[in-house]
Amino acid sequence: MSKKHNSDNQNIEHEDVMANDSGASDAAVPPEAILLDDGDDAQATIEQLKEELAHSQDQYLRLQADFDNYRKRTRREMEDQVKYAIVPLVRDLLDVLDNLNRAVESADQEKDSGLLQGVKLVADQLQAVLSERGVKKMDTVGQAFDPNFHESLRFIPSAEFAPGLIAEEVQPGYQLHERVVRPAKVFVAENK
After folding, report:
1. CA atoms 167, 171, 172, 174: torsion sign
2. Are 190 and 155 within 8 A, CB to CB?
3. Which residue(s) pair with 136 in the sheet?
């Protein structure tokens, strides 16, 4: 049993010596001294570290700029989503408005009709609600044809309008803010 106890003590002493040696070597030689031992090597190492630092700073600045751009783009996309979320509803309501306006036009022969006045009021109210939400009717007659805003149904000869101008509007077009919700259906003037 004494051999085993003696062997354990030697192991402990050996571990203590190893720990002291490794600690003594770290404390005895500071990192600066290691760099400064060789003059040329130390200067090269310093230059290399400066270059790595500059590269890391450049990467950091680029990453920060990319993140700022991403944040701005995401915010803009979310604002657009909110701004144009009602487009499907507006398209459906424009069909209702068209039908109300057709009813008014067809019943316009009976000027004293209370029903006609009621339908006109409903059409005007719907138009006002849409306007409050940023929906506006596009002007077309006399304007140059633009496929981004107009849908040409056909060309018609016109003495009043120059070729390429819109001579007649068949169905009005509407925009929500800057975006076309429904293009105007038009007849475009051509030479006689």
Report:
1. negative
2. yes
3. 175
Provide the whole-model pTM: 0.59
Whole-angstrom Cα distance, residue 128 to residue 102?
Answer: 18
CA distance 185 to 189: 13
Let me know: does 119 contact 107? Beta carbons within 8 Å. Answer: yes
CA distance 24 to 190: 98
**Best CA proximity match to 153, nearest among 140, 138, 171, 179:** 171
Q: From CA 40, how far away is CA 192, in angstroms rounded? A: 90
Strand ranges, E, within 44-172:
135-137, 150-157, 166-171
pLDDT digits (tens, 9 = 90+) for 9-59: 555 454 544 444 444 444 555 555 554 455 678 888 999 999 999 999 999
